[in-house]
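Researcher: Please translate sequence to structure tokens.
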Amino acid sequence: MSVPSKLTSYFNSGRPVVAAVDPDGATADEMRAANGGVVVQSGDPQALLDSCIALRMDPFQAAQLGASGLRFRQDTLGETGAIDAFARLLI
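Model: Translation complete:
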């Protein structure tokens, strides 16, 4: 995954996302805004594995991140949120 638009589908699952991306890129920014998962440096398979294991070992944290991502998808990335954001730009 390297495109922020993919996060809409991922967040919609209600599960935490582990994104192996550039930590300074747009996808990482969207992940932080949503608080819907974990960002690890792309090209670091050990960090990816460690993050997946950590989430598996902490189901409460995984559920919190998944719920936060779903909420972000509904409130910010959904139709109503998008229309509201666009309307604010026009005012």
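Researcher: Any highlights?
Model: The helical segments are 6-12, 26-34, 45-57, 59-77, 79-90.
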